[in-house]
Give the backbone structure.
Amino acid sequence: MTNYRIAIPSLKRHNALKQLTYKFLKHHNIPDHLIYIFVIDKEYETYKIEFPNCNIIVGRFGAKNNKNYITQYFKQGEYIVQLDDDIKNLYETDANKKLSPIENLKDLIDNALLAIDGEDCPVYGIYPIKNGHFMARNAETLSTQLNYLCGAFLIYRNTGLPLRSANLIEDYEWSLLNFLKFGKVLRNNRVCIEANTYTLAGGLQYGNNRNKDNKLAEIKKLMNQYPEYVKLTMKSTKQPDIQFVNKKTIIKNPSLTPLPTVVEEDTTNLLHTYYTGNTIMPDIFVRCLNSWIKLEYEIILFTNEKIENLPEGNITCKPVAENVAASPAQRADLIRFKFLSENSGATWIDLDMFLVRKIPLTKNIISSEQPNRSGGYKSSKTNTPNIGLIRLEDTSIFKDTTQKCIDLKNHKKTTCYMNLFVRLLEQYDLLKYVVDWHCYCPLDWSNMKQSHKESILTSKYGKEIVSIEQIKNNKEIIGIHMWNSFITKYNLTITDQSCFFAQILSL
């Protein structure tokens, strides 16, 4: 992956930058055209001479101002690798607490971007102290709780990130604000940094009155704003410092909207979906359509295919215009968002959603899936929103998503449109409409292989298991996302009619 930019804020350190961070980047074969150095106007020519093939950008004076400007300079959705100008090296620790220089920076960045998208959290950092013993005390390689993210090395997706206001504790403030906004921050506890942060002249703190009293004042201000999360500590040197508390969860977390206990019939009785592919529709799609027909739904199927095995029922096929998306999955998402942007309160459902009950008559519904509860991608959240089933009165988010998707037309990641929508849910205050994962994703994607072989599922990644009996008896379980992408990926087939997947289809 090379769809990222290297951003380096710098002040009065062109020589140090050349001998440290720039040398480190060149050692790992990072090309100059990916490097953006943010400097003040007076130093533009100096840096341009020293780094003729890099992008020299006139930024802002001061640490917080220049770092804030970086997020404003790059486009929304771009991936940024932000480094200080005084980095000597990055190190990783092994099981024996031994530290060794990282072998491949590009691999580290690629894995970080995968974690950012996989965890749906736009910020990623590393362990702030070069100490293998301390690093080994962390149980998880990738933690998601409230941790300090050292600003000397950050990777993030430039989407709705908070701006810094503090001058001397800006990295602590930024870590906390991102945690409060996104519910987690990602930190790799097996990688650390070595830098000359306070031993070199110049730097972004140049001109700031970096004394004990000013730092103490900023810490107290943050404590007053967020007393649940911040407390004051004193170092052995009598210097004030910050300690994060209540690390595991967000205290002020929006609650999920529960499904009604009584399921009312949807008077519109109309479902919208999309199909592209062969003229012979895959069996799983036919089975899902039949489950909708069984519940007496009317169906609008957007497709340009002449389907030969369309099931009998109230199905109306409508042609759909081509769009600029790069992949079939992205085209499907863009069709979905554009339609919903023009049709308030319409119900859109994935074609691989098997319905066992009528969809509740609620004006707003957003489906979700179960996040990992253990392993490297362990999440503190209970539900991860998805787009398997959506119904919203307000079309604003769909209009915004549609435009942003068009702007990302050349993005190669298949799920980028879906991830974009999910990230916007908080911005539009729509997380309150996200229903529990049991409602539409009781069968988890991690169990797909097992569901085609075994009748009883076992837990993976610490996730809760739902039985066939629960699906039959729990009225809050409305549908079952059948994960066709995994059926295709693993070429899954039913060989035993007693397997979990076959039991679902027989409901």
Remarks:
- The longest strand covers residues 186-195.
- The chain has two domains: 4-244, 270-505.
- The radius of gyration is 25 Å.
